[in-house]
């Protein structure tokens, strides 16, 4: 190697090496401080794209769990109201049984019928008043077999979305709840048929079968909701497992391995210190030429 004064090629080469080492040390420091292997698209463009999709799915799945829990709360609200309706129906059957016997006169049956009608009115009140977050549950608004969510207010059966996509087979359920008002159940003076009144002995006898049919209709709705609640609980378990596994996969792509990165950091730190020391020595080489001139 020639001994020159105008250009110190050894120092330039050492400086370039030092810059490269500092860049690697800076990247390693960023990874250790953030805990992420991928901090920008430059670190791993494909990995960044996969990670962001995974993060969006994880967030959607976690919200889906909350949506499903809200649906369970809604179902429990409806079921609790129908449990109260059960008590009214049982009392109505008791009244019908009482009025069906021949030991009461017409005036007494009218008194019994007045309580019967009061029970029917209370059933209708419960059906109209039961709601969840402003959504009426038992008045028949959710009894349609179709769903339309294109307007500001959705119509038809209830649409429960929990998946990260929009596939009807795997991303949402639809809950249909029939009306349990006294008229829908065929009971009380607002209805027509055998359960409308127990003011006569014959009417009371006929009402017994009508009340049984009403209890069956109401229990079918409760059974359907109970099955849906069990399904939602299983769905929540699956969503939580899916979110957990997706989070683990995202971590393997995105997170830094601290032990490996610390090894890399120590290596680059030693190389940087060595490069600084060598740059100092390289910068002193022109002094050798000066000593020759001075000599």
TrEMBL record:
Domain Flagellin N-terminal: 5-141
InterPro entries assigned: Flagellin, Flagellin_C, Flagellin_C_sub2, Flagellin_N
A Pfam family the protein falls into: Flagellin_C
Keyword Zinc: no
Glycosyltransferase is among the record's keywords: no
Protein keywords: Bacterial flagellum, Cell projection, Cilium, Flagellum, Secreted
Record SUPFAM superfamilies: Phase 1 flagellin
GO molecular function (one): structural molecule activity
Subcellular location: Secreted; Bacterial flagellum
Transmembrane segments: none
Main location: secreted
Name the UniProt record assigns to this protein: Flagellin
Species: Nitratidesulfovibrio vulgaris (strain DSM 19637 / Miyazaki F) (Desulfovibrio vulgaris)
């Amino acid at each position: 190697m020639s001994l020159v004064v105008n250009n110190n090629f050894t120092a330039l080469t050492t400086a370039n090496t030092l810059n490269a080492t500092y860049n690697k040390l800076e990247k390693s420091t960023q990874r250790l401080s953030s805990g992420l292997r991928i901090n920008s698209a430059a670190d791993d463009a494909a990995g960044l794209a996969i990670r962001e999709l995974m993060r969006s799915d994880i967030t959607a799945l976690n919200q889906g769990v909350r949506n499903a829990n809200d649906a369970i709360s809604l179902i429990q609200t409806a079921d609790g109201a129908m449990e109260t309706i059960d008590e009214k129906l049982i009392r109505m059957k008791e009244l019908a049984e009482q009025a069906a016997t021949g030991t009461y006169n017409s005036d007494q049956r009218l008194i019994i019928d007045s309580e019967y009608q009061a029970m029917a009115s209370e059933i209708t009140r419960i059906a109209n008043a039961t709601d969840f977050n402003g959504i009426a549950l038992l008045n028949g608004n959710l009894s349609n077999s179709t769903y339309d969510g294109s307007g500001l207010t959705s119509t038809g059966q209830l649409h429960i979305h929990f998946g990260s996509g929009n596939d009807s087979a795997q991303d949402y359920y639809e809950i249909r709840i029939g009306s349990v008002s006294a008229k829908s159940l065929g009971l009380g003076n607002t209805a027509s048929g055998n359960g409308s009144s127990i003011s006569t002995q014959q009417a009371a006898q006929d009402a017994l079968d009508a009340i049984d049919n009403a209890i069956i209709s109401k229990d079918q709705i409760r059974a359907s909701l109970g099955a849906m609640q069990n399904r939602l609980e299983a769905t929540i378990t699956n969503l939580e497992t899916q979110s957990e596994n997706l989070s683990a996969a995202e971590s393997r792509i995105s997170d830094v391995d601290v032990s490996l990165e610390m090894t890399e950091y120590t290596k680059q730190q030693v190389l940087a210190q060595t490069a600084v020391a060598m740059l100092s020595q390289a910068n002193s080489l022109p002094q050798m030429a000066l000593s020759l001139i001075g000599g």
